[in-house]
């Protein structure tokens, strides 16, 4: 008789104090992390920060030096890889070249002794939109199609958690963008927990509902992509998720404003406001930052005035780069620092040129304050 599929219970994946040392070197440093059931979770960080090692411990391919991994009430820390309700999709798809696409997808079920697999295979091929290619062999497929076979092959085993290790790394940019949207669609459709490892901030922000930014074996900050981008907690996060225009400043007071009110900051002699809700540090020396697309440039002495509550005067445009939908300006400030501004190319404003004197305007609501004891770079 046909084996029935295990019930999709689903549970949070919880890492507690998870640690991996290699010959005294701490690759993963007492990680505490909860991945909510059904979420698309991205572990994002630079090369060598420990994200693959973390994933391999969850998969059971690497023995932790310390800490625990639990799925709901089950402690899976020391389970053999094949006994965990977890599957991994790697960057190298590792398909069987001599088997058809359908047979590749069926592999996991057949190995577990299932006889009737046709229905499940059809459903999976349909999910990844490869029904027409079922009888081909991997070499006759594009990279993106092979990636989708690898995904179907993992999903057919009905894991509770799907681990994805840089799964799109081998694809060109355009295909990678398509697959990002595709992966997100599939995750929503199957409702499984996806844990996606990447060093590409755009990829993490596009797909994940929760991003954990990892640096040197620990988590710097975790949350929804917009929150990490708008309210970075550390200079590392601020810089890893884009350009942050960090300027040395000092908190001089407070003022009423939206929500919790504003901090008043001295920035090289000019008073600037920052929403208290975006400030990690609320007194003394800080880094104050604003994202490039939140800043509006106006020509000095021109008729247009800036719409926002903050204004830094007397910058000079030092570089103009046309990037299609927007233009990137570098602006040298009187104190010597260069700030970056993105301006949408709507055609509504005349473009500024190198050497033009400009003022920078932006809102206190988009201003964040970080600990000045951290490096800005
Ligand atoms: P990448 O994006 O380059 O794969 P990563 O963030 O996934 O980087 P890991 O592969 O987890 O990083 O490696 C974390 C650190 O642990 C690195 O400094 C790496 O050199 C080290 N490391 C990984 N595996 C081993 C091993 N088997 N023996 C010794 N050191 C290792």
Automatic annotation (TrEMBL):
It comes from Nocardioides dokdonensis FR1436. The gene is potA_2. One of its GO terms (cellular component) is ATP-binding cassette (ABC) transporter complex. It is an enzyme of class 3 (hydrolase). The keyword Hydrolase applies. InterPro entries: AAA+_ATPase, ABC_SmlMolc_Importer, ABC_transporter-like_ATP-bd, ABC_transporter-like_CS, Mo/tungstate-bd_C_term_dom, P-loop_NTPase, Transp-assoc_OB_typ2. Pfam families: ABC_tran (PF00005), TOBE_2 (PF08402). This is Spermidine/putrescine import ATP-binding protein PotA. Keywords: ATP-binding, Hydrolase, Nucleotide-binding, Transport. Its EC number is 3.6.3.31. SUPFAM superfamilies: MOP-like, P-loop containing nucleoside triphosphate hydrolases. Residues 13-241 form the ABC transporter domain.
